[in-house]
Amino acid sequence: MKSFFKRFTFTWNAKLRTKLLSSFILICIIFSIGSVVSFTSMRNTNQSYDYLINNVMEIRSVSSSIESNISQQTSHFRGYFLNGDIEDLDRVTELSQIGSELINNGLELSTVEEVTDSLTILQNLNNSYSNQVEDITTNGMGSSDTSNRDLVLLENRMINESQQLNDLLNEIVAEHSEQTTAESATAMILILIISAVALVIAIVGGFIISTMISKPIVKLAQISERLADGDLTVDSLTVKSRDEIYVLNESFRNMTNNFRKMVAQIASNTDQVAASSEQLSSSADETTKATTTITGSIQSVATGAETQVQSTGAAKEVVKDIAVGMKQITESVELVSSFANDAGDKSNNGKVVIEKAMKQMDKINSKTAEISDVVQQLGDKSKEIGSIISLITDVAEQTNLLALNAAIEAARAGEHGRGFAVVADEVRKLAEQSNKSAEEIRHLIHYIQEDIDRSVTMMGEGRESVEGGLTLVNDAGNEFETISLSVNDLTTQIAQILRAVKENTEGTNKMQTFIEEAAKIAEESASYSQNVAASTEEQMASMEEISASAETLSSMAEELLNEVRKFKV
């Protein structure tokens, strides 16, 4: 169990490509097992048919030839007995030798004990028949009736034994045919079971893998939408696996945390800017009031006024720098939003690609089912071919028997030639039946060939579907790579925003220093209140400009705060 959980954990933490390839390899292994079983079954069936054709059927042919040989021996001996023609006697001797050779050939082919025993009996009977014929020939045609009766008995025994041999061979053929049919049916059931198991594994594996991929991607898309709407309080997603989705989730987590810190820092700095602008406005008001009471020395007031103008000019530059920094912050935030939207779009594209891959898997399953049906039809057609072959075989046997009878009738000739016409008519009918069976075989073979062509075509389509699935998976990987690049760009923009905020802070500090210098000069001007009458208006104008700048800075800080408040931190 521990090793199983280790393997399962490894598969769970594997890359997406490894998970998909593992599922496809598992299905291919199962189908390979089915192919091996199918090949083994077909090989066993072929061996059985080869045995029937090359051995049993050959022995049946030998048996039929032996039976024909016996009939010819009987016919020629009777011709010799009736006519005394020496050619008939020579033909009997020749046929006896041929019969002995046929029986020896049958013994060499036989692998069944009963068949061997029957052939041995025929061999003994044939030898006895030859000896009996030789004895009758030696003693002359006028030998005893006992010898003639014995010869007739031997003929009958040989004919009966050959018929029994044919019956035995028919039983062997039927037994092997039934065995072959049973083996084919068993193999077909096993193939169907393996195909069903492969189908179930493919469906379950496809569902599990698709769920593992699509579920976290959908959740990441939802998180991206909330981030795009400015909700930075969204909780991060927990991913147990350690694949590409885990890496993408960690990138989203880091991006969210950095963005949250950035917005909080911007809000804090904006509050400080607003407070500084209020202080600046208050100081400007106090300076204006103090200017109305100045009566000091004109020279001292003029010197202080010049210094104060320079300080206020520097304050304007600092305020301008702050405005530029705020503009950069706004542009950077807009870029951050754009990149976040781009990342969401790429995630959606990845989801679409994964869905296409699922459809390709379904297509593979459909083609596999069709291939199973075609193979089943091919088996059915093979069974029909077996039955028709049996029918043709039976017809051939009957045709051979009738041909032998026709030969016997022809030998007798004379007025009995009418019997030959009857036999010939039977031969014609059996020949027509053989032609009909052969035609049916041709049609069935044609159908089987069409089914085989369909199987080849469907296997090609299944292969194309697998290749399409792999291509789509590669596309998904490219899309996720693009998302990673977008996240990197987003990080760069955040760094620019942070630098702009730092510059804003430095400008604020400088502005505070310059304002303090202006306050000191205003205090010095108060001591020379009697000499500042001429410069009072200029000092008032300067204070109004400072006050307006402070109000502008306060307004900009308020607008920036409003923009920052749109984000939920």
UniProtKB/TrEMBL annotation:
Cellular component GO terms, alphabetically?
plasma membrane
Write out the annotated subcellular location.
Answer: Cell membrane
The UniProt transmembrane annotation reads: 187-209
Has the keyword Metal-binding been applied to this entry?
Answer: no
Q: Which GO terms describe its molecular function?
A: transmembrane signaling receptor activity
Which CDD domains does the UniProt record give? HAMP, MCP_signal
- Methyl-accepting transducer domain spans which residues? 283-554
Alphabetized InterPro entries for the sequence: Chemotax_Me-accpt_rcpt, HAMP_dom, MCPsignal_dom
Q: Which Pfam families match?
A: HAMP (PF00672), MCPsignal (PF00015)
The family this protein is said to belong to: Belongs to the methyl-accepting chemotaxis (MCP) protein family.
- The name under which this protein is listed is Methyl-accepting chemotaxis sensory transducer
